[in-house]
Amino acid sequence: METASKVVGLVSVLTAVTALSLLARPVVPAMPFLVGVALAGGFLLGRFLRERSLAPWLGLLYMVPGLFYTAFHAAYFPLLPWLAGVLGLCLAGPDVRRWHVPTAWKAPIALWALTVALSWPVVVLRELDFAPGLTLPLRLAGNGVGTPHTVTVGMALFFPALTVTGLLWTDALFYHFGRRPMADFRRWVLMPLGVSFLLTVLIAAVQSFWDVRFMNRPRWVGLRAASGGLLDPNPLGLLSALAGPALLAAALPVRSWTGRLGLLAGLGASGFGILASGSRTALLLGLTALAGSVGVAGAAGRRAGWRWGLAGLVGVIGAASLLGAAYLFRGTPLYRAIVRLPAVQDLGNLSEAFRTQLADRLPFYRVTGAMLRDVPLTGIGSGTYYVLVSDYGLRLLGDPLHFDNAQNWYLHQLAELGLLGSLGWVLWMAVFVRTVLGQAAPAEVRRSAGVLKVVLVLFGISSLVGAHAQDGAVLMTFWVLAFWAARLVGLEAETTPGSATSRRVWVGVIALALLYTGAQAYVGLHHLRPPFRAAAVGWGYTYGFYGPERDPLGGPFRWTRRRAVTVLPVHGPRLRLRMFVHHPDVEHRPVSVVVWIDDRRVLEAMLRDRQVHTWDVPLPTDRPRVALTIGVSRTWRPADYGLPDRRVLGVGVAEWTFP
């Protein structure tokens, strides 16, 4: 059972990454090649370097988006090659078929991974209207503002791949460092991660003081915001806010002046990253985390107090110098960040700023509530919030909310996974609180563990007003911090196969994941199909029909393929359909025609000749539009019978009327 859960997760994410690389080919032709090379490279490095193989990927983590954008001038899933490399690393282990996380973590993490791994194919098929052969080559709308349906499919591939890779990444950390000395973890994980952070801050400095266009997207160039190597100022600010306390946790205990000055330099880089990003949320998180961390670290005692005070004075002087430099470079992202600070502005505007931030988030909270009311058990499907939020905004508020997350990580997960699909991550959070945050660390690492606990708690609180972990770099950093804290309180990798976690638990995990997947399929077929959403909001959605033609009597009609779908307005209680087939062998092999209005079958007929047949089907009168689906049991190709027509034909449909 445990083997099945791990192997399914690996195969699922490998399939998602491969499919997304092929989907991205029109935008980035080299994407399949990059993903293949990264996957093979990660596997080979994992085979030969073992725990050291994590270092190159971590050293690139905060740089990959910017490097990708610079090379291909596109920001289309720039972290995908990095995920492929990490996946290759996860596949390289000799014991790849079982989970290595602590025993208490196994069932929640396996449930979380299986829920996402099994359900994303259903969501992807739903966004292709369960007819990928017909819809994938077309350019259809995925929502009421015209977002291409391939973008929706890409999101439904990327975010499940990111989620499951994050869980596999955590498992790899426990496999490689779960029982090794923490010095190895510092050398092969924390050190390259710190180098990557310093490099991205260096890029932010170039953007701030030299050229804001360097490795930056036009959107942020227009706002004069530095994004480092991450292509987004918000992750830069958040990671900078986490970096300062993390550096403090890694450095404790600091016994030398050079160590203190190095720590202050690192904290300065962290502060610079926050200011250059211009993120007020990151500023608040950084100040709170640093204050809490210093409070925990201050347990060093009175004897070291004057040294910390003097080091703090050096830090204040450095910060003042930084502020002065910012004002010398007016018009840069750093200057913009400084002048936006609450301390620089009129303090009387703080309440107004709070109301503005709340007003910006409330529409997303209302939409999330509506999603949960519509599909409380299953949610709308992993990765699809960004696209469906526009339709819900149009329905509820008359405003197509922009392409964004739910502004709250917990609500975002509930909206996408529902109550049933959220059991995995909710259980893991409860277990994490009990086994890590609620556990005391040994005396020699108590201050470092305390600092990390402060950071993780504040990260969780800040996720109430932002979906930070939707960003790949932030998510992977979170898992590193969670692993680090777990090791400091004494949690280790499980080394005995099949121990402690009973067969009954594994049966429950797999049953819940399968139940959720089945429920997601039902919801997709009966509630969340794209034509149903189009009918509810009022955007055009049609496929499976060929262009209009004229019959021998001059009347207009259109041929269908095996399946044809359209959204039509309701102008009466009945819809008159006139249909016919021209299959050469229809007298010997009748053709079945089935018609659905929304998810209700309203007609099933067996055609045995080439005559035009007429039916009146009922329409609901409580809605302005409905989705019409026409299916045939088999098609034919005129070219196979010597005719100059290579199309695949189903049923001919004359122009419908409302009698």
Could you explain the architecture of this structure?
By secondary structure, this protein is an alpha+beta fold. It folds into 2 domains: 2-514, no CATH class; 543-654, Sandwich (Hypothetical Protein Tm1070, Chain: A). The protein is 58% helix and 9% strand. The chain has 23 helices and 9 strands. The chain has helices at 2-23, 31-49, 54-60, 64-72, 80-91, 103-127, 132-135, 149-177, 182-209, 218-222, 233-251, 257-277, 280-297, 305-328, 333-340, 350-374, 385-397, 409-421, 423-437, 446-462, 472-488, 503-526, 530-537; strands at 543-545, 549-550, 556-569, 574-580, 591-597, 600-607, 613-618, 625-632, 652-654. Strands 1, 2, 3, 4, 5, 6, 7, 8 and 9 form a 9-stranded antiparallel sheet that branches. Helix 1 crosses helix 8, helix 6 (103-127) packs parallel to helix 22 and helix 20 runs antiparallel to helix 21. The longest helix has 29 residues, at 149-177. It is elongated. 46% of the residues are buried. Mean pLDDT is 89; it is low at 300-306 and 341-348.
